[in-house]
């Protein structure tokens, strides 16, 4: 699906559609009249982990929101390759502590897109939810209230909710925030497994170790594209120093 927005931009360069899941050109977006992203052009390869890297305020979360369809760009062209709608897992703080939801109910919400919020889950739905919880190691937390969990436990519940959507495009905003090293390694292993299953993963991260483990990095600074490529080539000390230095 290709979505055009209201300002002109250069046409997308020719590309083999089988190699990418998302492609955008001249993409701009922001909030309440304040532009955050400025004329971004990049490709997200299919069945790979892409890390969005940059300092706080560089536009990582905004770009994820655009890819998820929850933020409408002000200009540019966005093309999503064939597949199911994306599954978006926002930062842990975006889920309210006051919601009276158990962990299982939270993960079950991942089935709402297919079933709707008011229809009973089928046996298949329940199996999908159970598998997602098991993969994130939270089965024993099923009856716990979401607001009672530690930050890391709640983050794993939200990732499980994303898995339950069964999308081939998984968008994660700082997925390892609040996780201990063991859980962080577990999430990294899970993402690698998902890629082998044909899932395209895009994660915004400030963790350079996580970025270096990705297949491709998209480097942002103040809403501008600072580079895209394999982490070994892109995440060099000189470039990182320039990106993180004060404007």
Topology:
Elements: E1 2-4, E2 20-31, E3 34-45, E4 49-53, H1 60-68, E5 75-80, E6 87-89, H2 103-108, H3 112-115, H4 123-135, H5 151-163, E7 169-173, H6 181-196, E8 200-205, H7 208-212, E9 216-221, E10 224-229, H8 231-234, H9 237-244
Helix pairs in contact: 4-5
Rg: 18 Å
Can you count the beta strands?
A: 10
Helix content: 25-40%
User: Which stretches are low in confidence, meaning pLDDT under 50 for 5 or more residues running?
Assistant: 1-16
| Order of the strands making up the biggest sheet | 6-7-8-4-9-10
What is the CATH class designation of the domain at 1-86 and 168-177 and 204-247?
Answer: Alpha Beta
CATH-defined fold name of the domain at 1-86 and 168-177 and 204-247? Rossmann fold
The CATH H-level superfamily of the domain at 1-86 and 168-177 and 204-247 is P-loop containing nucleotide triphosphate hydrolases
Structural class designation:
alpha/beta
Which CATH architecture of the domain at 1-86 and 168-177 and 204-247 is right?
A: 3-Layer(aba) Sandwich
What this model shows, in words?
The protein is an alpha/beta fold. The protein has a domain at 1-86 and 168-177 and 204-247: Rossmann fold (3-Layer(aba) Sandwich), CATH 3.40.50.300. It has helices at 60-68, 103-108, 112-115, 123-135, 151-163, 181-196, 208-212, 231-234, 237-244, and strands spanning 2-4, 20-31, 34-45, 49-53, 75-80, 87-89, 169-173, 200-205, 216-221, 224-229. The strands form two sheets. Strands 6-7-8-4-9-10 form a six-stranded mixed sheet, sandwiched between helices. The protein has a four-stranded antiparallel sheet with strand order 1-5-2-3, covered by helices on one side. Helix 6 links the parallel strand 7 (169-173) and strand 8 (200-205). Helix 4 (123-135) packs across helix 5 (151-163). Residues 1-16 have low confidence and may be disordered.
